[in-house]
């Protein structure tokens, strides 16, 4: 169990310096408010798309990876706003008291939210775009939301949150989740007699080529996972190492912010192990809130 917790960076304690709820440049209330706005927009998009668009139908929508990803974005921002605003008000985030399984699930959800939307955007504009997808105002709005704003939300999290690089174990997990979606797509074809995406149809290129496409999709998501990790590394290095931005914390933070100015930086980022060691040693220094 301790090995599993180490792989997923679950502590104890989990996220001791509130990286999931803080930003280097935004106050917790501002960060939580923006996340809440993203969640509201996500909910509005789901409702309008279900009521205005005729294709796909609400029952078919969960067969599309872009729609599943959008639900993930929306749920993440709902939860993240809740935790962030709770932390802003009390200095404690409910997330730190949750079961380890739920903490691991939240961290994994963050990784999918900053990885899968980028893949959706790349695949849509690189392989699926046709003028017919923008034939009505509803389709224009829905496609821009699902295939452009989705990545904007991901980039916001990469740049403005204080989260560390995702643990390496998340790399295989995102590949497994993508593989699980491939199963959903072919189950949809078997039960509904249509392919959600044309490039999944083996009759167009042959089974061998189809397997190659699926493997290539796995390669793309791994490449994006590595790219996101590098971007987070760069953000940590610039913000914390070069600019000395240790984060804006809640006024009622229970002395966790005081450890920030004595954090050590490893490859441009601070590891959870180092944060726990600092907490155990009881070191403290002034921090800005």
Task: Tell me what you see in this structure.
The chain has one domain (11-281). The protein has 9 helices and no strands. It has helices at 2-8, 28-52, 65-90, 100-128, 137-160, 170-192, 202-205, 207-242, 272-281. The two termini are 36 Å apart. Residues 260-274 and 276-289 have low confidence and may be disordered. The chain crosses the membrane at residues 29-48, 68-88, 109-128, 140-161, 173-191, 211-238. It comes from Exidia glandulosa HHB12029. This is FAR-17a/AIG1-like protein.
List the main descriptive attributes of the protein structure presented here.
289 residues; mainly alpha; 64% helix; 0% strand; globular; disordered C terminus
Summarize the structure.
The chain crosses the membrane at residues 29-48, 68-88, 109-128, 140-161, 173-191, 211-238. The chain has one domain.
Question: How would you summarize the topology of this molecule?
Answer:
Layout: H1 2-8, H2 28-52, H3 65-90, H4 100-128, H5 137-160, H6 170-192, H7 202-205, H8 207-242, H9 272-281
Helix pairs in contact: 2-3, 2-5, 3-4, 3-5, 4-5, 4-8, 6-8
Order of helices and strands: HHHHHHHHH
Overall average pLDDT: 86
Query: Describe the biggest sheet?
Result: none
Q: Measured on Cα atoms, how large is the radius of gyration?
A: 20 Å
Per DSSP E runs of 2 or more residues, the count of β-strands stands at 0
- Please identify the structural class as seen in this structure: mainly alpha
Distance between the termini: 36 Å
Helix share, percent: 55-70%
């Amino acid at each position: 169990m301790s090995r599993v917790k180490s792989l997923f960076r679950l502590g104890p304690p989990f996220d001791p310096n509130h990286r999931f709820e803080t930003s280097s440049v935004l106050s917790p209330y501002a960060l939580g408010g923006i996340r809440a706005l993203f969640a509201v927009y996500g909910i509005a998009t789901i409702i309008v798309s279900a009521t205005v668009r005729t294709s796909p139908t609400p029952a078919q929508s969960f067969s599309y990876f872009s729609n599943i990803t959008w639900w993930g974005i929306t749920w993440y921002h709902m939860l993240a706003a809740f935790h962030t605003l709770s932390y802003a008000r009390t200095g404690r985030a409910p997330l730190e008291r949750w079961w380890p399984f739920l903490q691991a699930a939240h961290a994994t959800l963050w990784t999918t939210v900053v990885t899968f939307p980028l893949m959706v955007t790349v695949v849509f504009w690189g392989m699926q775009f046709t003028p017919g997808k923008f034939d009505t105002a509803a389709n224009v709005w829905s496609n821009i939301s699902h295939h452009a704003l989705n990545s904007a939300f991901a980039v916001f999290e990469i740049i403005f949150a204080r989260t560390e690089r995702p643990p390496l174990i998340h790399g295989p997990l995102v590949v497994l989740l993508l593989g699980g979606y491939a199963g959903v797509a072919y189950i949809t074809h078997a039960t509904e007699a249509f392919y959600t995406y044309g490039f999944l149809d083996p009759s167009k290129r042959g089974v061998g080529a189809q397997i190659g496409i699926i493997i290539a999709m796995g390669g793309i998501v791994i490449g994006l996972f590595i790219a996101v990790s590098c971007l987070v590394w760069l953000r940590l290095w610039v913000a914390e190492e070069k600019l000395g931005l240790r984060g804006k914390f809640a006024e009622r933070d229970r002395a966790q912010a005081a450890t920030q100015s004595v954090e050590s930086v490893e490859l441009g980022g601070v590891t959870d192990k180092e944060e726990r060691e600092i907490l155990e040693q009881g070191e403290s220094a002034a921090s800005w809130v």
